[in-house]
Design goal:
The chain is built from two helices and 21 strands. It has 242 residues and is mostly beta strands. The protein folds into two domains: 127 residues, Sandwich (Immunoglobulin-like); 87 residues, Immunoglobulin-like. Strands 2, 4, 5, 7, 9, 12 and 13 form a seven-stranded mixed β-sheet that branches. It has a four-stranded antiparallel β-sheet with strand order 1-3-8-6, with no helix packed on it. A three-stranded antiparallel β-sheet has the order 14-15-20, with no helix packed on it.
Length: 242
């Protein structure tokens, strides 16, 4: 039986989710939060929309970023002004109003593998005056996810290593393909000769602390052990469903 993951795994997964999603409780929202683009042609451009849900006007800046993930899963954002054009770069929205934001890929048109980018939304803090008291209203900042994907690209996931460390599985997975993939788009077949189990995306989300894999990269994830499976003989095959 699959048990609940540890608290540390849960915190890590929530952190990754908040990078690519925006709760409705925030002062503004953006759609879509996750998108794909092509390096050339009509699909090299897309429109995002910001909606002000607050009772006050707000000002938001948009920043082009490239997304990099190291082998331990840490996400880094690098300025990408040469690769992404954003119009406008600043939006002022009245309560209940929305603003279209154009994003255009300007990078190399003949890329051999997909690239991950982000539009960083940065709400500019404002100073509020009233009753002889001055206070700063802090803004909400978050990042979208945009993958620029050339045609005829494919992801290929393979488990390279599996270790038991401090009661948890450390599983190293390699994406030797030239396309990004999310583990939520996969299913796993786990076997040790005596036992066999198929894990769907819902089960994987409970067991793993990572999701996005960039092309030609490896990542080591923390996984909650599956009871009754022998570490000495275990074999995991990953099938990409999308």
């Amino acid at each position: 039986m699959i048990k609940n993951m540890t608290t540390s795994c849960l915190v890590a997964m929530v952190s990754l989710i908040t990078v690519f999603s925006l709760p409705n409780a925030f002062a503004y929202k953006v759609q879509p939060m996750v998108a794909e683009m092509s390096p050339v042609g009509k699909k090299a451009q897309l429109n995002l929309r910001i909606e002000n849900n607050d009772s006050e006007s707000l000002t938001v800046e948009m920043i082009p970023l490239q997304l990099v993930i190291n082998n331990s899963g840490k996400i880094e954002y690098i300025p990408a002004e040469d690769d992404l054009l954003i119009i406008p770069v600043t939006a002022i929205l009245k309560p209940g109003h929305s603003q279209a934001v154009m994003v255009r890929y300007l990078g190399e048109p003949d890329i051999a593998e997909s690239k991950a980018y982000s539009v960083g939304f940065r709400q500019i803090p404002i100073t509020m005056e009233g009753d002889n008291i001055s206070q700063v209203k802090m803004g909400v900042n978050f990042n979208t996810l945009i993958n620029v994907v050339p045609t005829n690209t494919k992801a290929n996931l393979l488990v390279k290593e599996l270790k038991l460390i401090d009661g948890e599985w450390k599983i190293t997975i390699n994406n030797s393909g030239n396309r990004y993939v999310r583990l939520s788009e996969t299913q796993w077949q786990v076997s040790d000769g005596a036992n066999s189990l198929q894990l769907n995306k819902e089960q994987l989300s409970e067991l793993l602390n990572g999701n996005l894999f960039l092309p030609n990269s490896s990542r080591t994830l923390t996984m909650k052990p599956i009871e009754s499976f022998s570490m000495d003989k275990i074999e995991i095959k990953i099938e990409i469903m999308k």
